Amino acid sequence: MSCSLRVAWDEGLTAYNFGPQHPLAPVRVELTMALARELGVFDAPGVSFTGVEPADDKLLELVHDRHYIEAVKRAGVTLQPDDPYYLGTADNPVFPNMHDAAALISGASVAAARAVWAGEAQHAVNIAGGLHHAMPKHAWGFCVYNDAALAIAWLLEQGAKRVAYVDVDVHHGDGVQKVFYDDPRVLTISLHESPLTLFPGTGRPGEIGGPRAEGYAVNVALPAGTGDERWLRAFHAVVPPLLREFQPEVLVTQHGCDTHTLDPLANLTMSLDGQRLAYAELHRLAKETAGGRWVVLGGGGYELVQVVPRAWTHLLAEVTGAPLDPDTQTPQEWREFVQRRTGETAPLRMTDGRDPGHVPFEEGFDPADPVDQAIQETRRAVFPCHGIDPNL
Asked: Residue 133 catalytic?
C-alpha cells in the first residue's frame, strides 16, 4: 500500500565533498537519486519533493556549541585546519564552504522531521543525511554537523515527548547517543560492528544511558563477519520489543549501508537482500509503534557503485510503500550514466541473489555463538529498565 512521502532534496546536498580521495564521495547520492528516478520510485502515489534551506545558527545550536560552529565557518573560508575541533584531519578535511554544505544537509533533515511532525506526509527522507558521528563540540568520523541529532532536537523543541532513533550503520551512532545520553525522551538503538574491530571504538552493551536515562541508550555490538541471518536475528531480538514498549511519537532511522560485504571500510557481510528486509521491518515498526511517523536518513556506505545506489533505491521504494522486486534490472540509461560518471561498470540487477531468513532468538539461545552472546548482553543490560524480561 502506498504511503505519503516527502523527499527533502536540493542538488546542493552533493556539495558536502571532502575531496576526490576521500571515501565519503557525494557521487553515491547522485547515483542513488538517478537510479530511483529511472526506476520510477518517485512516481509512486503520494510522493512529493520539498526544497530545503540551510540550518541557521539558532537551529545548529540545539546540538552544537557556537564556538564550534564559528570554527567550521572559518575553516571553510580560510581552508586552514582547526585542531581543537578536528577540522583538517584525514577523516575531516577542510573544504571550501564547508559550513554551508553541512548546514544544508542539517536543514534537509529538519525539513523531513517538520513534514512528518506537521502531518504533511506520513514519512519523509533526506537520503544525504545521517551524519551521525558529529559531536557537539567537534567534527568526527566524516561528519561536521549531526543532522540526525538536530532533527530529533527540533522535534523535542516542538513538544515531542518520545522520539526513537534506530541506527543500522556498521559504525556506532556515537554522536546521536552522546547528545541524548541523559534524556529519557529519546531512545537510541544502534546495531553496529563491535568496537573491538571498528571505528569509533564505542557502542558496548554497557553503554545504557546516563543516570536519568538508564536503558535509553541501546547498543548491539556484532562480531566481524556477521551476515544476513545473524544480523536479522539480532535486530529482531532487540529492536521490536523496545519500540513496542517505548511507543515513540516519531521514529527516526539512519540507514548506513556499509554493513554490506563489499564495503571497503568495515567487516560485516550483509547482502542487499538482507538490508532490504531490515528496511521493510523498520517500515512496519514505524506504522505499528509510531503511528506511521517516520523520518528516514542515509548514512555511511563506501562501495559507491555496486552497493549504495541499489541499497538506498530499495530504501526509497520501501518508504513509498511500493517496494521494488529484487529481480528488477537496473535501467540501461542508468548504467550508461554510471559509466560516464565513474568509469565503472554498473550492476545489472537490484539483488545480490540471496534469500535470507533468520531463526528467532526466542527459539533458543546458543551460549557458544558470538552473535547470541552479543544479543544477550544487550537484552540483559537494557530490557529490565523497560520492564521487559530479557530471557523471554
From this structure: yes
